[in-house]
Amino acid sequence: MRRLNIILTIFSYFDCPLLKKGILFSGLFCITNISFSQKLVLNEKEYFETQGLNVLVFNNEYNGIFFDEKTAGIEFIHHGVRTVTGGAIRLHNTPEQWDLIPKMISRKVNKANNTIEVILRYEDFDFDSKIIVTPRGKGFVLNVVLDKPIPKILEGKAGFNMEFLPSTYFESNYLVDGKAGTFPRYPASNTETRPTSEKISQFAKHNTFDDRGRKEYIVTLPLESGKNLIFAPENPERTVKIQSDNQEVMLFDGRDLGQNGWFVARSLLPANKTGNVLTWYVEPNAIPNWTREPVIGFSQVGYLPSQKKVSVIELDKNDKVLPSASIFKLSEDGKFVEKLKADVKVWGNYLRYNYAQFDFSSVTEKGLYYIQYGDQKTNTFQIEDSIYSKTWHPTMDVWFPVQMDHMEVNEAYRTWHGKPFLDDCLQAPLNHEHFDGYKQGPTTETKYKPLERIPGMSVGGWFDAGDFDIQTFSHVSVVDSFVESWEAFKVNRDETYIDQKTQFVDIHRPDGKPDVLQQIEHGVLNLVAQVENIGHPVRGIIVPNLHQYHHLGDASTETDNLPYNPSLKTYESNRVSSGTPDDRWAFTHRTSFLDYRTAAALAGASRALKGYNDELSVKCLTLAKKLFNEANEGPKDAKDEDGPFSDFAKGSDMIAMLQLFITTKEDQYKTGFLNKIWNSLDENLRGNMNSALLAIPYMDDNYKAKLRTYVIKYKAAIDKETSDNPYAVPILKGGWGGSSQVINWARVNYYIHKSYPDVVDKEYVYKGLNYVFGCHPYSNLSFVNAVGNRSKNVAYGGNRADFTTIAGGVVPGLIFLKPDFLENKDDWPFLWGENECIIDGGAWFVFLANAANELSVKK
Asked: Where is the composition biased (Polar residues) (predicted)?
């Protein structure tokens, strides 16, 4: 209603003829030639802004690891939503993720001239370009300046691109030189093939196109082209004009090449020219006096009667805090009645928004409620005793079964995937850098030759996330966490049929066995297979080709499921093997860190599996001791402490000793643990606190008393850390969301509360869940799919192209775009830093939900 009032006001003010005639296409069409922008100014945070619009100019750079993550270059935050990204010199009409990206050489902010200037470089082509952005009129001018002509190889390829989020412009129109068109809901533009000799190679010569011997590649052709483009003329919140002085502007649909593609506005750079070679005037519309609607943060799952209940209200910096808010309860006659009206307290500024808090802890009566702040009403939520008891069920019942590798997974009328990767796996080649961060060094560190088959690996494991690889450390973390859940809470829920012999899973079908034990077994089977068949745990197992890696849909079709046979031709098969080199590779670099952490996980699993699968339990303990001894005797890898797992590497031997002691009760492991734990806490209090707390039940009273000093110090540290934001949890500011960080923070708080309830109370556990369930910045959606009254509509899983979720997956949450923008999109699943569910995050959530439920039933 608020938006409609704005629109009607605009139409009335400009005496719109379509309004007089009663013709309103979707309520909004007559503003094609009207602009409402206010002038952009360069603010103290070094981006351009006016009320309703921010223009970021390389505040965020392209990533040299995963290349184009759609979070870099020239970007718009348009009426509170990031709608445009990737403004830069690019070498393709519609760049894919692994296409080459420019490196930013310099960025100069000239406050006197009100300009931002960046120099970009393509090192492979010795090609530099300068982009200068200057506010003018109601928008800004963008100039591309070259000191020397573009290289011959880039003629007709190098151009300036600006990318528009498709979901923002679905069901909208565009105008190109006055000719109207509709943004397609599904990609339907024209493409053509060109010789591969003309293509600019992707990262490290990888190829997203298939390998079927083709000598061509696909190019997307423009939807339209002209000198004047208008995006969404009927929607003042999303209207953007582009005018080009000297080059045609082409409009492309990047989704023809990849479902994660964006709409692209592009002008080619002219050949044989220097100086100012391209000029665009860009005018994103800004509605006068626009303010973002408040976001009322609260737990979509609800609250316990006795729990502290604080709603955090996120406000536009131009908005005013209202003095009060109310709580309404559903009465017996079916009407909502006001139960509380209380003060709203100003909290202050955090990043770009202002915040207030509404404490309704005094409401303790069970029932169904909503919050009203001004004219805004939230959706309903519950206050009940058993509010946390079922929150983890979708994660265990659905999400983890769907992630199970080497299994056919069925749910009622649906088959999620067939049996995948029965051809697992080959030894990775030497000196190879994989596109997903895996590396194989100058030796295999195994008995296998490069690309030799490793037998016995088609068993167990989970897909790490939205792609279909096995990441061993993630598996270790999941096994650890499931063992903790089993031992702490004896979660014996049984809703999944799992048959390892026939490699079949049936969701919502009990089989008389606790699901958590079956999942521990499934993870352990792959870890054991690695140690027995390879000789040690490996960094990961993943497909070798980029055209496989971006696979969406049924995981069983990512390979042909037949072992590779080099004596056969590509795509030739004898029905038991094939000549297609699509089998996954094992990256087998050995580290003492991973040996120790796998030993710890196997030692813990040995306890959990005892009495359930005794043979596997014994094997787990035997291999745990073997890995521990070999890691102790072998050289320590320096890369452990400066590589991708540096935060976890220190103290990994201590973690293994603790788990081995708990399982075996052998003094050698206890002594080793005690010899290290105190120095470890002194060096890294937060990183080692969880291990110290886990040891309490197995140590004497002196240990607990000594640890208390560290716990008090830890409490002071987290209070200081979380005091910078109104949610009072640790909010991660990076390119990967921080849901797991908050969950683990709350998990540690649970262990502290159990042993030192006078130091940390229950609220430190509940606050973590409240955040994940909706009391967080940007929106109030639950970050656990299908949990809570309103949860994520889309997520980054194997089914992301369907714009849906897998129930129970925990999304990373909010990514941070410098200098001040936290984002979690719910209309575009392909941003993995915001929406990709990972296995260890899911397992940690299962523990935390059970922990909160245990606290809720203890008086």
From this structure: 557-580
CB 324 within 8 A of CB 342: yes
Residue count of the chain: 859
DSSP letter string over 85-140? EEEEEESSSS--TTS--PEEEEEEEETTTTEEEEEEEEGGGTEEEEEEEEEETTEE
| Residues 158/269, Cβ–Cβ less than 8 Å | yes
- Residue 123 tokens, joined: 């090192």
* Cα angle 716-718-721, degrees, rounded to a multiple of 5: 110
**CA-wise closest residue to 463 among 720, 850, 206, 806:** 806
pLDDT tens-digit readout, 719-728: 999 999 999 9
Question: Residue 65 — pLDDT band, cuts 50, 70, 90?
Answer: confident
What is the rounded distance in angstroms from the CA atom of residue 139 to the CA atom of residue 818? 22
| Burial class of 345 by CB neighbour count within 10 A (0 to 12, 13 to 18, 19+) | middle
Nearest alpha-carbon partner for 849 in 746, 728, 696, 756:
746
What domains sit in the chain, N to C, each tagged with a CATH number?
A: 1-30 (no CATH), 36-284 (2.70.98), 295-383 (2.60.40.10), 700-859 (no CATH)
Return d(Cα 755, Cα 78) in angstroms, integer. Answer: 49
Q: Which of 441, 549, 678, 446 is nearest to 202 (CA)?
A: 549
User: Distance of CA 625 to CAs 205, 349, 593, Å?
Assistant: 43, 53, 15
**pLDDT confidence of residue 18:** 30
Distance CA 313, CA 298 (A): 9
CA dihedral for 295, 297, 302, 304, sign (positive or negative): negative
Helix/strand/coil for 736: coil
DSSP code of residue 462 = B
**Which residue type does 201 have?**
S
Residue 335 CB-density burial (10 A; 0-12 exposed, 13-18 middle, 19+ buried): exposed
pLDDT digits (tens, 9 = 90+) for 458-516: 999 999 999 999 999 999 999 999 999 999 999 999 999 999 999 999 999 999 999 99
Query: Could you give the CA distance from residue 446 to residue 425 in angstroms, rounded to a whole number?
Result: 14
The model carries a pTM of 0.94
The token pair at 779 is 């929106």
Among residues 313, 301, 367, 391, which one has the least CA distance to residue 345? 313
DSSP 8-state class, residue 328:
E
Q: Average pLDDT in the 540-544 region?
A: 97
